[in-house]
Every structure is written in structure tokens, then in C-alpha cells.
């Protein structure tokens, strides 16, 4: 039996009666015939501190099997020391050293006795390893010898533990490496549709002196931290959007997720869904889609019926439709606002330029803003291009669109849904399946038509992207997309069109009217209050006429401020009291006509006996003021600070 086998089986040379070879590992011998000192490596984090070895096994072990109790300098001064602490020196003995504490062998037998005949001197403790210490390059690893006990070679019978709990060769916690699949994105650029010259001329819009004429204008100001989009009606700012790059936590309206049900609240008729955002989203019972076979009926209840929307539950309870841990496909309909999470629906829809695809539904509709003749023409086309098993809604932008354009739009959306459906079957919840394009492209997709005289963009890359997108869907409007650098005006684009100063006015709580009156806009937790004042408007004829004219101006300006500030929820307007009922009716008529240009859904009630107008507006985002501000850390958003000395 070789010395290596004795060492690995746990028996030292003293137990086996074999004298260890003075030069077993090929180390050079000293002048006195003893093995020369070997410079030991400093122990790293490989678990050597708690590993035991057999007594006397140093003769056949490698450097990694020693416990580094001494520094390299101390080890070099004890070239003649045996593993058990005995000093077998030459004719001139080496400097005596104190013995190390004997340690038992791996098989439990005591180590060799320590020779105490040599004088002992106190030894200096070795220095602890420090950051920055050098470590000699390790020599070639010896070939592992066969082990009699089945243990690792040179390991003293103890198997080493891997540090960090990581798997073999993988840095993701030992599990299989998962490749992060990218979500599906909307196809923006496609080959342009061939349109005859007559159709192009009809859809191009009005021009004056070679310049496009339109009621609206869009100005896009792109910076690294955010992109701002301003919509002007004439020269007045009516809408403003702020988009921040890679914001998958707040700007997620329209995204499609594979979510996991966290908990179901029967008392709230809602469920909280984990979609991977900081706040769980909420799914109400009316937005749940289901099949009759999936309902868990408690007993003899009658089968629930479906609502007006296909798949929307009417009588089924939320706990019968969803269960904790269930994976569902859902879409965000409202961004998270304040402390509230996003709102979800299972009625998934994919918006295109001309149509909206509703997968797995029989919904069928055409925009009511189109004329009757146009609606009939589009209905005949949709009967041919409608995909089987999916619903379609024709948008207002489809006015004048050809059958080829509608067919290509439907085909593009159908391909997107197939990719989303396939990705949902192979993904683990929560996962983002579909991401809406950037805000600038989204607004252009929803709003841009021949009523816009131009779209001015100050970023070259974004300009080329938008121009290619418009050229592929509306080639007759591609020349209305302009780059701000072509004009040669050195002013920034927002200052050139007086957008910057109008934003500053929109952030103030007080808005001045042309006649001298004013509006005071106050937002609270529950609702928004707007107060109408005459201010500097003193009139010319009588009080009733002055109040009536002031309220008419206020009605138009309030409708514009609601769109510009994106105020949603409950809104209460305090018009100045009017004695004549006809004047009150005229003010409400003017106010509703001004709100008709707002694409966000609103509902307005008549003036009450107290002179108040109550209305609601769908809340989509936090609002203009919140997008430019944050809560004051001193007052907590209350607007005043308490005197701590009196409390």
C-alpha cells in the first residue's frame, strides 16, 4: 500500500508502521537531507478552515489539504518540522519552535506525541490575511490518486462543499438558465400601400399657398429624461403628454400581461393581480371573462348568464370565477395613480391605425362619428376581412380607407395576437407579453389626421421613426411630419410656438379669462372644485348681462383646462348665480359643446339650485401638475407647516 493510500484511508504513518518518505511529492531536499520548506498558499474561501486531515498525512498531501495556521515566513523558518510537531533537524538543529496543538486523525486515533525536550519560545501569531495581499500562482495540480474509502483524493476523507449554494456552472441559483423573452411590440413600419392619385388628392386635405391647412398642430420635444408632446388648437395649448423612457411601472396603459391572482375579495367584488409592477393591479368582477365550464358553482344555484359584453359575468360571483394562484391574461386599462394600482380587464384589445382587434370575441362595431354612407361602405368591407373567431371595431380614422388598407391592418393585428397567445403559453407569470409603443407614436396613431396641419419634432431619430410610420399607414400625410431643424430657427421648439409659457400658466391654480374674470382650480382627494369669479370684469350694461358673459367665457376655458390638466373624477363647478333660466341653459349648452371636442368620456348634469354644475370625467393619468411635481417633504402636500413650539 502506498503512502497516499494510507493517508486517504485515515491512517497516518505512525499507525501503519510505515516511515514516510522524506521526499514524497518531489520537493527538493535540503543540505541535511530533510525536505526543504515549501511556501504554502494563503487559504482562500474554499472551506479549509473546518476540514480535518489525518496525522502525518502531510507527506502525501498537496498544498490545498493543509490548514494554513502559520504565515509563509513562519513556515519557511520551520523547514525541519514534522507534521506532528517533532523537530528532526540536522547536525546543527534549527531554531526551536513551539508545537501546534495536536489534532486527532480522521479516524479518531490520537496524533503523534509532541517532543517537549526542545526549549520553547513564545511565537508571534501569524498576521491575518488582508485585502490586497498577493498570492503565488498555484503549481500544476497533481493527478488524483485512487481512494480506498471512496473519498475525494487529497481531501482527508471529507467532501468539499460548494460555496454560495450555486449550481454547477450556473449563476442563477442552481436552477436552469432562463432566457428573458422580450414582449411583443406593435409593428410600426410596413410597406406603403399603393394608392391612386385621385384617392391621394382626396385624402390629402386642404392647402393654402402650398402649405397644409388644419385646425390642430402637434409639437414634440424629446430629451433624455422625458419626451413631451403638446397639441395646439390654433395657438392655444389644449393637450399635453409626458412620456419617460422605459417606464414599465407607471406608463403601462394598453400593455398585456400574464398575471397571477394574489387574492380574491368577495366583499369588494374584485381580485388583486400580480403583473410584475410595484403595486398589484385590480380586476373587478365586471371585467372578468369566463367559460361556463370554468365556473365553480357551490350547489343548486342557477347557471349564471353572460352580460352585454361577450364573456363578461353578470350573476357569477368573483370567487366562482377566479382562485388564488391562477394565471390569467389581462390588459391594463388605467395607469396606477397615487396609491392605487393599475386597473385591468380580460377583454383584451389590440389597437391598429384603422381598426381595433378584439381576440376571441364576437364584438362588431363602427365609430358613430362617421357618416351613414361611410358606415355602410366600411361594413361591406369588414364582412370580407373580419378574421374568424375575433371581433373588430372600426375607428374614426378609417374614413376613406381602402379595402386593401383595412385588410393589411387586420392581418398585422392578427399576427401580433398569434405571437402574444404563443408567448402566453410558454411564459411564467407574472410576465409582460405586449408593450405599447412610445407615447409620441401612440398619440400620432390615435390623433393624427388631415385636421392636423403639421407635426414638428426636434429629435432626428424620433422624426425618422414617426415619418416612416406615417408614410406606411397614411402616405398622403407624410409631408406634414417636419423636423424642427429644417426651419433654421435657433429657439427651442416649445418656445418657438409659445408652449413653454402656456405650460407655466397651466400649473398655476388661478386662470385669467379674457374679460378680466378668473378661475380658481383646487384639487382634493375626492374631487376637483372650480370657482368662477368676475375679478376685474365690471361689465357695461347690468349685472345679469355681466355675469352671463363671464360664465360663457368660463365654460369654454374650463373645458380647455380639463383637457390640458387631464383632470378626472368628480368635478364641481361653481358658476356665478344667474337669475334668468334661459341664461343658465345657454351656459350649460356652451359647456357641453366645448366638452364634445374632448375624446375622454364626460358626463355633465344641469345647474343645481345652488348654482353648481356636477360632472364626471374619466381619469386616465395623474394629471399635468403631478407629472411636473412631487409631494413637498416639509409640509407633506398640505401647503402649510405647523408651529411646533405651540404643540
Describe this entry's structure for a reader.
This protein has 647 residues and is α+β, with helices and mostly antiparallel strands. It has helices at 3-8, 13-16, 72-76, 197-204, 318-321, 372-385, 403-426, 439-447, 460-473, 493-496, 499-506, 543-565, 581-595, 624-627, and strands at residues 184-185, 207-208, 211-212, 216-222, 227-233, 236-243, 256-265, 270-274, 281-284, 327-334, 343-345, 350-351, 355-358, 364-366, 391-394, 431-435, 452-457, 481-483, 510-512, 518-523, 527-533, 569-574, 602-604, 612-617. Strands 1, 7, 8, 9, 10, 11 and 16 form a 7-stranded mixed sheet that branches. A 6-stranded mixed sheet has the order 19-20-21-22-24-23, with helices on one face. The radius of gyration is 40 Å and the shape is globular. Residues 1-29, 53-92, 105-109, 146-157, 164-179 and 297-313 have low confidence and may be disordered.
Describe what is shown at a glance:
This protein is 22% helix and 18% strand.
- Rg measurement, Å: 40 Å
Kindly estimate the percentage of residues that lie in beta strands according to DSSP: 15-25%
- For the record, give the distance between the C-alpha atoms at the N and C termini, rounded to a whole number: 89 Å
Number of strands: 24
The protein's oligomeric status is single chain
Helix proportion range: 10-25%
What is the count of DSSP helices, taking H or I runs of 4+ residues?
14
Bulk shape: globular
Largest beta-sheet details: 7 strands, mixed
- Backbone structural class: alpha+beta
Q: Which stretches are poorly predicted, pLDDT < 50 over at least 5 residues? A: 1-29, 53-92, 105-109, 146-157, 164-179, 297-313
The overall average pLDDT, rounded, is: 76
